[in-house]
Design goal:
- With 293 residues, the protein is mostly helical.
- The protein has a single domain, classed as Hypothetical protein af1432 (Orthogonal Bundle).
- It contains 16 helices and no strands.
């Protein structure tokens, strides 16, 4: 029986991978975002030229200004221009944020009873903010990388919802009626989890290897190889959001449990996470009033 189940899983995995192969060819990044990413890699690019380019995309401009004005950077005065925002965020972090926003926009889904995209965006932003703050509190120097990693950690879920929708509904049914966890149900119906799907697509679009590890292992940090601390921080941030009423709600997080390996790695316990969220929640609540999705 076990061999039969493995065969079924292999067939479903192969079918899922074929569907994902078609996604690979989709234009994930708008022309402006692609050009912005190129300019950020070019040492001869000027801040003024990059600001003018980003300014042509109202949605991108709005989000970058929102991020620059957030508590992530803690400036005492308002960031009113893209030029200043780029200086505040920094070129490296700006590139990762531009690519992350592009991917989230490309795989934006229509709302239905099982998934609300605003909640996905708010939750993802919140995990990013918590990850960055937690990174700083614990003495790590991940900075903007932790924010982007948190922003993208559940990237595979809207992909399943948008391109594998019948399987998405079967996953929901298995969780509700068969006492399966979401990861178990994903493996059952897709042969892959949202972690593996996120990693596959992340590698396809040349995301940094650190972000690909977060995508792949944020539910199991002990499996990470090269970026264990970053993966552990995003896991703890994700769990912390389960403890809080802030940050939107996505049903995929209802069965998340705190990974003890991650706690030992970061030298933090659940009581300390609860205390951290109690202190950070008011700041996060204020910030979410300003962030547009």
């Amino acid at each position: 029986m076990a061999n039969e189940l493995l065969t079924i899983d292999a067939e479903k995995k192969n079918k899922t991978e074929k569907i994902l192969a078609n996604i690979y060819s989709l234009p994930a990044i708008t022309e402006i975002m692609h050009e912005a990413s190129r300019m950020l890699d070019d040492p001869t690019s000027s801040t003024a030229d990059l600001a003018r380019l980003i300014g042509r995309d109202q949605g991108l401009s709005s989000r970058i200004l929102s991020i620059a004005n957030s508590s992530l950077y803690g400036l005492p005065r308002k960031v009113a221009t893209i030029d200043f925002a780029l200086l505040v965020i920094g070129y490296k972090d700006t590139k990762n944020i531009v690519v992350a926003l592009a991917l989230m926009e490309a795989f934006k889904t229509k709302n239905d009873a099982n998934l609300n995209y605003k909640n996905v965006w708010v939750h993802s932003y919140s995990v990013g903010g918590v990850a960055r703050k937690l990174s700083s509190e614990l003495g790590f120097k991940f900075s903007g990388e932790a924010f982007v990693a948190g922003l993208l950690h559940d990237f595979g879920i809207p992909v399943i919802h948008k391109y594998l929708h019948s399987a998405f509904l079967n996953i929901i049914n298995s969780v509700n009626n068969d006492n399966k966890t979401f990861l178990e149900a994903e493996a059952l119906h897709l042969g892959l989890t949202h972690q593996e799907i996120g990693k596959l697509l992340g590698e396809r679009w040349n995301l940094p290897s650190s972000l690909c590890e977060v995508l792949a292992f944020h539910h199991a940090p002990e499996l990470a190889k090269d970026y264990i601390d970053l993966v552990s921080i995003v896991h703890v941030a994700d769990y912390a959001m389960k403890l809080s009423e802030s940050g939107g709600s996505i049903i995929w997080d209802t069965d998340i449990s705190l990974n003890q390996f991650a706690c030992e790695r970061l030298k933090i316990n659940e009581d300390e996470i609860v205390k951290f969220m109690a202190e950070y929640k008011p700041i996060l609540d204020q910030e979410l009033q300003l962030i547009k999705y």
